[in-house]
Amino acid sequence: MIQKYTLGFLFNKELTKVLLIHKQRPTWQKGMINGLGGKFENQESALECITREVKEETNISTNPKSWIKYAQLHSSKFAVDVMATIYSGPEADATNNEDQPVE
User: What pTM was computed for the model?
Assistant: First the structure.
């Protein structure tokens, strides 16, 4: 069975900044910087997954309809929906909700 993931990028309205996460897990990503996202849970859609993951990782609530899917990475073992959205709230809204800092 193929494992499904989302990878999301929140841009400011000027498209000059993007919110990223400093990965602590999985081990092979430790110390790297990445977009937000993670594994699909149960029967959720890609939009539900990215919205949930962003909330869990940054405490930012996004509208699922605001996300745009612009790519899919895949192999015989995984599929990653790569998505983007514009966030017009204050940068200070992004907090470290987990043990992985965001900036």
Answer: 0.91
